[in-house]
């Protein structure tokens, strides 16, 4: 079953078209990764699917309905997004930040209920951040802060989570920490994860489905065997890639590459 898909989706800013008539199905309860060069429309696509920005034409369908016609709070109960550069959490404790994920469920004056506090504590436990509950967000390391932002997304209790470059600015250990957490959420709680990644080997290692974009169009969409392939990477990144096997996962990995000379 496919809950989420786009049909002929075009997205642009003023007269500049970024994404062009894109149709794609997002596998349910899987990890989907979007790869592609800078400026190809990866972040723009995520923002349009989650209705942060509007699209010029086409449709985004979730559970059989057009998301442009969906009630905002109802939509926020179905999908959560962690943007590339989350807004500042200056002055907030970890618990306060995570509580913002309960906004779609609040009524009246927005007071938190016992159920809200239960979900907040659960999200903190799952992400390994409960010990930081009363600590200022600004006092945490980069990896810890990223896990807290993920906890906020989890507090929304959505089945679909979007993340725009969740490993940006993190060192190798913290990158792996975040990706393994997302993999655990997918495997143990069947969350559908959709994320933008720059690292091809991380995409191959953690994704069930990869979408390779270039100039706002899909070059290839499929599993890692289909996408992490020399011919596809040549089209997408204009590189001559040497593909081998990850000795721990047996998945394809980019061992090395050269830039191809000539016009792209």
TrEMBL record:
Origin superkingdom: Bacteria
UniProt-recorded Gene Ontology molecular function terms: ATP binding; ATP hydrolysis activity
Keywords: ATP-binding, Cell membrane, Ion transport, Iron, Iron transport, Membrane, Nucleotide-binding, Transport
Residues of the ABC transporter domain: 4-240
Gene3D superfamilies documented for this protein: P-loop containing nucleotide triphosphate hydrolases (3.40.50.300)
Topological type in the membrane: Peripheral membrane protein
Keyword presence, Transport: yes
Main localisation: membrane
Any one annotated GO CC term: plasma membrane
GO biological process, one term: iron ion transport
Protein name as catalogued: ABC transporter ATP-binding protein
């Amino acid at each position: 079953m496919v809950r989420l898909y786009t049909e002929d989706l075009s997205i642009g800013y003023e007269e500049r078209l970024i994404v062009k008539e894109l149709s794609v199905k997002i596998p349910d309860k899987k990890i989907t990764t979007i790869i592609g060069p800078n400026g190809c429309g990866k972040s723009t696509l995520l923002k349009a699917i989650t209705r942060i920005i509007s699209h010029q034409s086409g449709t985004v369908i979730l559970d059989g309905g057009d998301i442009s016609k969906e009630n905002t709070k109802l939509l926020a109960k179905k999908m959560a997004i962690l943007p590339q550069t989350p807004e500042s959490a200056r002055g907030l404790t970890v618990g306060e930040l995570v509580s913002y994920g309960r906004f779609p469920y609040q009524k009246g004056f927005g007071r938190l209920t016992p159920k809200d506090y239960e979900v907040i504590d659960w999200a903190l436990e799952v992400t390994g951040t409960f010990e930081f509950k009363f600590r200022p967000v600004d006092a945490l390391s980069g990896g810890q802060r990223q896990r807290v932002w993920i906890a906020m997304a989890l507090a929304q209790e959505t089945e679909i989570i979007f993340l725009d470059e969740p490993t940006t600015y993190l060192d190798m250990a913290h990158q792996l920490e975040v990706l393994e957490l997302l993999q655990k959420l997918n495997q143990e709680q069947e969350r559908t994860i959709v994320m933008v990644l720059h690292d091809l080997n991380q995409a191959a290692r953690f994704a069930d489905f990869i979408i390779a974009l270039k100039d706002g169009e899909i070059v290839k969409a499929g599993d890692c065997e289909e996408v992490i392939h020399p011919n596809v990477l040549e089209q997408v990144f204009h590189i001559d890639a040497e593909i081998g096997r990850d000795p721990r996962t047996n998945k394809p990995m980019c061992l090395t590459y050269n830039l191809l000379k000539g016009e792209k």
